[in-house]
Amino acid sequence: MEIQRLINTGWIKEIPISNLIKHTFSVLDGRDSDLAVIRKSLKNGNVLISVADKGYANVFLCAKCRNLALCDCGGKLQIKEKATAPICKLCDSQSKNWKCKYCLADRPYVIAKGMDRTAEEIGKAFPGVEVLISNSEHVVQLREGEVKIVISTRGAEPVSNYAGLILLDGEKMYNQPYLRAEELTRQNWFGLISRVVADGDIYLSLLNNHPLVQDVIRNERKSQELLNQREAAKLTPFYRVCVISGETKAVNEFANNLQKLATFLIVGPSEVSKNQSELIIKTTLETSSNLVELIDEVTRLQSIKGRDIFDFRFDPYDL
Question: For the chain, how long is the longest CA-to-CA vector?
Fold first, then answer.
């Protein structure tokens, strides 16, 4: 987003890409399924499948009544490996001989698959092809002359050229509750597409009318829509953002004093843990130096008075 804004202002000159490599795209609501694209691509080389999460069944329901599987503490249950007891995400306790709390059925229905479950399903669909798993704990290496299916989480993809690319979990990755979820998904997908050979096949797990799908098909790596949303929300790269955290009473007092100045945009404060609160301050690029000077003065006064000094984060990568 930051680079795109600099291009728009003319500070950076954009050089158009010539001689683009052509690919064949399939989408969630299209004619070819992900399995059909894999089958076609395996005739020409390796296939990379990109997924959002590790694990086996990260969220599951009761197969009979469709209620969510929960621990006694209220946390969601997950199955980390095949044929193992569900484990609570909050308290880490096992639920041996799990049964649904509502109907007492004991068959799980997985709604959030991890890469291990995906590998199991792909292995059944293509029994004659070796399926490799690549993640942050172990990045696999591919040898020339071998045809493999690689299932990988973001950032752990083996460096290679691929005949086919399957981009799964599109909705989940694009709609994560983080400031840069859309931006990072775009960056990751375009980066992986650049590893697909000419005339290779690519499957996108989003509907054809999704903005990201249309940008991928047109090879439009910039998103003016996302940039406009950032500007309307008064976020980076149009505004400087400072996140302040500290003891709740002190943060509340500081927030009240800031609001009297009416110089900066204030979000919060919000309590993040017991007796700890967080405050977000926004300011335009032109007045950002005033905010820096203010924070410096506050830190100096807190130090002189022997108080706990706030934690400050300027322009955090994510919120």
Answer: 72
pLDDT tens for each residue of 138-157: 888 888 888 999 999 988 99
Q: pTM here? A: 0.78
Q: Cβ(173)–Cβ(181) under 8 Å?
A: yes
Task: Enumerate residue ranges in the chain where pLDDT < 70.
Answer: 18-19
Q: How many residues would you count in the chain?
A: 319
Q: Does domain 16-54+114-223 have CATH number 3.40.50.300?
A: yes
Phi/psi-derived region of residue 6, left when phi > 0, alpha when psi is between -120 and 50, beta in every other case: alpha
Do β-strands 149-153 and 47-51 pair in parallel, antiparallel, or remain unpaired? parallel
Long-range contacts of 77-81 (CB under 8 A, 24+ apart): 79/55, 79/108, 79/110, 80/55, 80/56, 81/56, 81/116
Residues 145 and 43: beta-carbon distance below 8 Å: no
The tens digit of pLDDT for each residue in 264-309 reads: 888 888 888 888 889 898 888 888 888 888 888 888 888 888 878 8
Integer CA distances (angstroms), 314 to 257, 259, 290, 317, in order: 20, 19, 13, 9
Where do the domains of the chain lie?
16-54+114-223, 58-113, 239-314
Does CATH number 3.30.70 belong to domain 239-314? yes
Judge contact between 62 and 77, C-beta under 8 A. Answer: no
